[in-house]
Amino acid sequence: FNSQDLANTAWAFACAGCIASDRIAALLDRIIAVLSTFEAIGLSQLYQFWLSVSVEHPQLQRLEPHHQERLRQAYVQTMPRPSRLQRNVSTALSRLGWTHEFEYVTEEGFSLD
Length: 113
Description:
Blueprint: H1 3-16, H2 21-33, H3 40-56, H4 65-77, H5 84-95, E1 104-105, E2 111-112
Antiparallel strand pairs: 1-2
Helix pairs in contact: 1-2, 1-3, 3-4
């Protein structure tokens, strides 16, 4: 696997909720070993993975605080790409007269649908 393959795999595990401790531990070890090779999009995906691991398997939190911050920064700096579903829901809400923010950004920099 190259770094983007690792990021894609980790992100897919996080999205699917398929997180077995032994596999996650092995994946984390590999990610940490090659963390310097990741580009911004991969780091952003890894942040989502890391958040999932920190909730589901807190005993596996192996990232140093400076690595955690690097992932977080990549995540908040990555431009959101709203899905077609999000755009359709927003359109439907607008037609109903429901005032809403299409993409809300928290104080921490997180973009929420």
